Amino acid sequence: MIIAKSIDEIIKPENGSCVTIGNFDGVHKGHQKLICSTCQKAKANGLASVVVTFDPHPLRVLVNSKTPPFITLTSQKLELIAQHQPDIVLALNFTKEIAALSPEEFIQRFLIDPLGMKQMVVGYDYALGKGRSGNYEILAGLGRKYGYGIERLDPVIIKDAVVSSSRIRDMVQEGNVWDVRPLLGRFYQVRGEVVHGMNRGARLLGFPTANIKLEDELFPKKGVYAIRVEVDGMVRPGVANIGKNPTFGNEALSVEAHIMDFSEDIYDKHIRVHFIQRIRSERKFNGLDELKERISVDIELAKSILSYPESQVRPGLHLSESGAGAC
């Protein structure tokens, strides 16, 4: 598999290609269906399978700070796409110049000439080009001109609603991390470096915590969660607090993870936190004793939640926790 960030890095496939294109934020079940269909169609027709996406997200270029938080960083997105094993993943550097291209200009410059596109697979609502003017009808008309076929897939419906990045984003921000799992095909995850915090966890409370310098943009709603923490390729049970620690009057948002039955020094290491289920809201306690008592309760609740087979995860961003996986 080739992961490229420029057309110049790609050798034109000898027999042509089958291409799907999109932002793929989250690489959720709808995106997975697109990628799998593209890989299967390519294999059946002797073509190279190609997934085209963008970095940064087009909204970040077009509207800057007004964009919502994204579900996956580019590195996470590419890791998830790679699990489906397409022949080529092209993460185009999105610019205002690209945004200004007409659908025909974009297709000819990025899909026809360098990739020899023979087949195209798009989502039910996908559109490309300036002002999103390249809808399915336009793309089909261009297909007749340039000699490629196009297939439009129906949306994926779960719990009577379309699976979409915006729906997933809203659920994560509401703390519904257990319910978002079927839509993503995995538990929602954040990653970051373990840094020194206020030195209160072990010293004052008796519960050592890993304070995470977060890389991600989208965080679950403030509160306490049952989690699984990935450290050095091993997955361990834990409980995490997202918030400002009102008992101590903090101002900054933090994520602090207590890893159960774990005492290794992991400062400066990068870890991943899989959010399994929300336990409660963050609240202010009347002193350390009341807080310590509640943390003990939270840990027991987390142990109960994590005892269910459905709560298991494997290292990495695997899509198999709820039945998804490579095509």
UniProtKB/TrEMBL annotation:
Ranges for domain Riboflavin kinase: 183-307
Keywords: ATP-binding, FAD, Flavoprotein, FMN, Kinase, Multifunctional enzyme, Nucleotide-binding, Nucleotidyltransferase, Transferase
One GO BP annotation of this record: riboflavin biosynthetic process
Catalytic activity: FMN + ATP + H(+) = FAD + diphosphate; riboflavin + ATP = FMN + ADP + H(+)
CDD domains: FAD_synthetase_N
Cross-referenced InterPro entries: FAD_synthase (IPR015864), Riboflavin_kinase (IPR023468), Riboflavin_kinase_bac (IPR002606), Riboflavin_kinase_bac/euk (IPR015865), Riboflavin_kinase_dom_sf (IPR023465), Rossmann-like_a/b/a_fold (IPR014729)
Record pathway: Cofactor biosynthesis; FAD biosynthesis; FAD from FMN: step 1/1; Cofactor biosynthesis; FMN biosynthesis; FMN from riboflavin (ATP route): step 1/1
The keyword Flavoprotein appears for this protein: yes
UniProt-recorded Gene Ontology molecular function terms: ATP binding; FMN adenylyltransferase activity; riboflavin kinase activity
EC number(s) stated in the UniProt entry for this protein: 2.7.1.26, 2.7.7.2
Family indicated by similarity: Belongs to the ribF family.
Function description: Catalyzes the phosphorylation of riboflavin to FMN followed by the adenylation of FMN to FAD.
Protein's recorded name: Riboflavin biosynthesis protein
Species: Maridesulfovibrio hydrothermalis AM13 = DSM 14728
